[in-house]
Amino acid sequence: MSQARFNVVGIGNAIVDIISRCDDEFLQTQNLSKGHMQLIETTDIEQLYAAIGPATEISGGSAANSCAGIASFGGDTAFIGKVNDDEFGRIFAHDLRAIGVKFDTTKATDGLPTARSLVLVTPDGERTMNTYLGVSPELNHGEIDASIIKDAQVTYLEGYLFDRPEAKAAFEQAAKIAASGGRKVSLTLSDAFCVDRHRTEFLALIKNNIDILFANEEEISALYETSNFDEACAKVKSDCALTALTRGSNGSLVITPDQSIEISAIPVDKVIDTTGAGDLYAAGFLFGFTTGESHETSAKLGSLAASEVISHLGARPEATLSTLARNNGLI
Fold first, then answer.
1. Of 13, 93, 199, 290, which cross-links 136 as Cys (Cβ 3.0–4.6 Å)?
2. Helix axes 277-290, 62-73, angle to 10 degrees
């Protein structure tokens, strides 16, 4: 197998986050499920946007956030995702390239606009996402750059992108290309509601194509339709070679067929915004994995990145993660 140019290539929704603060009462008034992501249409996001207070626009998207984190650790990474050649599309592309992520997916020139997600952050730091996908799910197998997939140690797939047949076909193609080149394939389940929509397909994908799985407690429990976390852990152990499960303030759990490793969370003085915590955990873990670190160290790098991103507004790191990792003796 040839030397890989990239640590990770991410495939996911290309989204610009519109972040605003609100209280729990506002969520109730708008009939929003706290802490979850829901897909909404153009009219819905416009109405919700009109109802919120001041907002900040920051490029986001789950897998794109992970790629940004890997770049901040000093890794080489690329992203495949669909934007339109509009204002939000240009913002997204500029932000990603500016932090060192290769992003060359051809922009759409007509049709649906670039995706955006209205992220409502409550005083406890919990985020509730209302996402208009726009052109993002129209990524199809013809836009998967096989040369980049073959040139990456890990292809990282975002579960959120599973809502359109075209995107599923792109996932399958990318997984086959990676496997044929002896590379690894990773999946993040993204959201419990997303798992509910695609449980059967996710299970088949995990058993047949996925080498590294990321999920939180709620997502892994939803996958196996159980309220017992230990039961879900036992089941995933036989379905995937390597699983990293995040547990918020309780840290994370790394599971292989032979062992389970508990990793403590890194305390944060004040949680400002949990948006991107799972994305940055995956960034740290995948950076560690692709640079030859142990599963334990990889998970600690994930915890470090997650602790940084929840200490401020937005889903991408503000501090240089490679410096933080060195200061904490992790690299």
1. 13
2. 50
Contact of 244 with 282, CB cutoff 8 Å: yes
User: Coil, strand, or helix at residue 32?
Assistant: coil
Q: Are 315 and 279 spatial neighbours (Cβ–Cβ below 8 Å)?
A: yes
Within a domain: 59 = yes
Instruction: Identify which of 315, 271, 291, 275 has the alpha carbon closest to the alpha carbon of residue 77.
Output: 291
Q: Is 242 helix (H, G, I), strand (E, B) or coil?
A: strand
Q: Is residue 1 part of a domain?
A: no
Cα gap 315→60, rounded to integer Å: 7
Output the domain CATH number for residue 32: 3.40.1190.20
Q: By residue range, what is the domain housing residue 261?
A: 6-327
Q: Which residues pair with 186 in a beta bridge?
A: 156, 212
Number of domains in the chain: 1
Q: Give the predicted TM-score (pTM) of the model.
A: 0.92
Tokens read off for 163: 């809502």
- What's the rounded Cα separation, in Å, for the pair 20 and 55? 5
Question: Which residues are bridge partners to 76 per DSSP?
Answer: none
Give the bridge partners for 263, in sequence order.
Answer: 252
**pLDDT per position as a tens digit, 170-192:** 888 999 999 999 999 999 999 89
H or E, element range at 281: helix 277-290
